[in-house]
Amino acid sequence: MIIGGIDIAVLFASLMVGSVPILLAALGETVVERSGVLNLGVEGMMIIGAVSGFIAAVQLDNPVAGFLAGAVCGALFSLIFAALTQGLLANQVATGLALTLFGIGISSLAGQGYNGIKPPATFALPMGPLRDIPFLGPMLFRHDWVVWFSLFMVAAVWFVLNRTRAGLIIRAVGESHEAAHALGYKVNRIRLLCILFGGAMAGMGGAYISLVRVPQWTDNMTNGVGWIALAIVVFASWRPGRVLVGAWLFGGLMVLGPNLQAAGYRIPVEYLSMAPYLITIVVLVVMSSGRRGRATGAPAALGQNFHASR
Amino acid sequence: MLRLEKRPNPSVFWLWATPVLAVALTMVVGGLLFAALGSNPVTVIRTIFWDPLFGANAGYFRAQLLIKAAPLILIAIGLAMGFRAGIWNIGAEGQYIIGAVVGASVGLAVYPTENRLIFPAMVLAGAFGGWAWAMIPAILKTRFNTNEILVSLMLVYVAEAILAKAALGFLRNPEGMGFPGSRNFSSYPAARNFDLIERTGLHWGGVTALAVAVAAYVLLTRHGIGFQIRLAGQAPRAARFHGVSPTRLVVFCLGLTGALAGMAGLFEATGPGGQITENFASGYGFTAIIVAFLGRLNPLGIVLAGFMMALTYVGGSLAESTMNLPAASIQVFQGMLLFFLLGVDVLTNYRVRRPSGAAKGAEA
């Protein structure tokens, strides 16, 4: 099916691939923020995941090892944030910014000598005859395992947050840490685990950029994707299902540009490169307008540190 | 395990001792990092922190220090006002870029007219450009309650795209034989931000930075709006009862930062930078965040912090050229400094106690 010179199946397929980094990072951040922690270091954790995943994949010649390394290093990196905000009660906004600045620096330090190398390829899952279904085949059944993993994680995060005891505790900590503390939950320990989960997801999302999307290592290659992921969490009103909608919306807008150009539409590069950010702003305005205060669905204790004084 | 006990009031001693402690810790851990990279840590630390001030060619490096410190101080003072009031403008980099582009456009529009009013007009235009760019998150925040952190940051990427458009398109030097970049201001005396005293690095940006620091200090400690800023940050509820208008504060703080960042961009483009190029922005807007915190969000502290951070830039590039240190290691070094600063800040607001001693104290 071709509309206006663009093959819809191919567009949707590239949308699903293009949205994976945002989706993974935004899902992780959703859990972090539901526990009441605002980690603005998503961009930093993603770039760390991108570089460490790339190095591991190239060294071990195995893309799966790359994704694992990205997740582990992302989590380890988020440990800095956890130690500062949960242990030393540092300001979350400032610490998150520091994480991003530090991550960009350390990743370009670590990535020296890896520029211009091609990583081992991540292949599509064998789907047998499903691949060859007209329209649906190229649209849905020629993706690699990470695409399916990210979709599985949407369901998993939704289930854990809304249908399990663990999710109830996470939400309690995020809505009122005083009450959760009074019930005997270890607020800072629960938040620490959520931060690590967020770090792992962001790291894996970063690894997907350097291993599949681009695929190579260049300095500062995440280029704001982590910040867009943060905006998606707001857009989604902190709900995993809506995170998927948001990620696909943005993934679609990001791949629409190159597709339009390929189809022969002449749009200046500058406008294409600023479009995702402008659209993010518009979406943020629409989502936040007219709903002053807490009605946006933000966790009540978001961004506040907890110190048990008694 | 140690235990934290909240101080009734922040410790004045630790308020000023923590930046020093953080710098010392960064030197130690940074030294370990440099050792891991295969350099002699003592030599690297000396190259970064000592040689630019007192080593060979110190005259040149001291001038560089002033050149780098001026934009950092200008931007950080604006940021600090906002941070104090709990308004997080982290898009100063974008405001810096737009200020430079708008200011330079004014100058280049009248090229090659010679008039002594051209440079002041450009400075005003730069301040206006940065102010207008900062008004976008400010108005969205006050009108639609949109998160200013995300909006101001997104606008950095938009500004970078506009900068690319300017360097390759509407500001490109018509006599540049197709090379990207605007006309060079060093060959346009009326619009040039020259050294006020030859070879000291003191240009109008440096003078403005110092004047703004003093003015901001007075504003913050002696003026009504300064009181409102401090009150809104420390006790938002009390501020509401006092009649502080959040809208006014957001517009004031973001606008001030934008105007200062825009001016800094213009001073940089017409002085040390020389022209508008695609990669003219060098991250001052982000480094200024570190400067603001290192200076304890205090205008006079920021002046010291600005020079400290300029030292890591100047010494860093010296270490880069003489010791073959990778350029990114300085960025790591600066990031580390902010981490340590935020970490040791716990000592300002909390006492560290051993639990057994505290328990005894509670019984007594």
UniProtKB/TrEMBL annotation, chain A:
Pfam families: BPD_transp_2. This is Branched-chain amino acid transport system / permease component. Its main location: membrane. The chain crosses the membrane at residues 6-25, 37-58, 64-84, 96-117, 145-161, 190-209, 221-238, 245-265, 271-287. It is a multi-pass membrane protein. GO terms for molecular function: transmembrane transporter activity. Keywords: Cell membrane, Membrane, Transmembrane, Transmembrane helix.
From TrEMBL, chain B:
The chain crosses the membrane at residues 12-39, 59-82, 94-111, 117-140, 149-171, 202-220, 249-267, 279-295, 302-319, 325-344. It is a multi-pass membrane protein. GO terms for cellular component: plasma membrane. It comes from the Bacteria. It is found in: Cell membrane. Its main location: membrane. Keywords: Cell membrane, Membrane, Transmembrane, Transmembrane helix. InterPro entries: ABC_transp_permease. One of its GO terms (molecular function) is transmembrane transporter activity. This is Branched-chain amino acid transport system / permease component. It comes from Pseudogemmobacter humi. The lineage of its organism: Bacteria, Pseudomonadati, Pseudomonadota, Alphaproteobacteria, Rhodobacterales.
